[in-house]
Design brief:
The chain is of the alpha/beta class. It contains six helices and six strands, in the order βββαβββααααα.
Length: 244
């Protein structure tokens, strides 16, 4: 959010998700809601599987959180809200970016309608596209922390800054716990299973569409044959009538 660390005096995690309570839950669950000392709210959410619903999902969360004006208060008291998504896939394959931010604005002039309502998306697969601005704020380093697959990688990142070191240490501790590791593996297996089911459903849908197309082709051919038979019958009747 391009906020200097010195400007953040306090951070409150409003709704932490406890490991184990929602690992297999299919409900609409936000990962983390954070409130900064200036009363602005940040929704943080991760998604590793593309369910093709991110834009609607993130908007729903953002709108729910932005609806924070208490009864009797002025609408200008609405607290600024940002929804930040960490995605392990490209949200818009035809418009690939590493870190992008979206706001309500005039489609002709680009005039911002309201700066209190913002969506940001970080594509963990596109670190190579990080801009100078992204690197200035170390967004690429955080992405690498999330994408690290070995302890060696984590260690290299951790050595760059105390903040990364603390984060890497937390990751190490969490993954050292056998219960948590088993839960993560179960979650991963569930994701793979869902991807398999989605693939099967897609193949069944394609097969059904192909069957429908084939049936339409057959019906068309049958109709053409029926038309030919009717034409022949009409010609035969005409010949018979002429021979009387």
């Amino acid at each position: 959010m391009h906020v200097p660390l010195s400007d953040i005096k306090s951070v409150e995690i409003v709704n932490p998700i406890e490991l184990g309570k929602h690992i297999d839950d299919k409900d609409f669950i936000l990962d983390v809601k954070v409130m900064l000392n200036d009363n602005s709210i940040i929704n943080l959410e991760m998604q590793v599987t593309n369910y093709s619903n991110w834009t609607n999902r993130s908007l729903c969360y953002l709108c729910r959180t932005f609806d924070n004006v208490q009864k009797g208060e002025d609408y200008n008291s609405a607290i600024p809200v940002t929804h930040i998504g960490f995605l392990d896939y490209d949200l818009f394959p035809d418009d690939i970016e590493f870190y992008s931010t979206y706001m309500l604005q005039n489609v002709e002039t680009g005039k911002i309608y309201n700066s209190k309502f913002r969506l940001s998306v970080l594509s963990l697969n596109q670190i190579k596209l990080a801009t100078k601005e992204d690197k200035k704020w170390h967004i690429d380093e955080w992405a690498r922390l999330f994408k690290a697959t070995t302890w060696e990688e984590l260690k290299m990142i951790a050595e760059k800054d105390k903040v990364y070191s603390e984060a890497a240490n937390s990751i190490y501790v969490q993954n050292s716990d056998e219960t948590i590791r088993a839960m993560c593996e179960a979650r991963q297996e569930a994701i793979f299973h869902e991807q398999y089911v989605q693939k099967q459903l897609k193949e069944l849908k394609e097969a059904r569409e192909e069957a429908i197309i084939h049936e339409q082709y057959v019906q068309k051919k049958l109709s053409e044959k029926d038309a030919q038979i009717k034409q022949l019958q009409a010609e035969i009747k005409k010949l018979k009538d002429n021979n009387k």
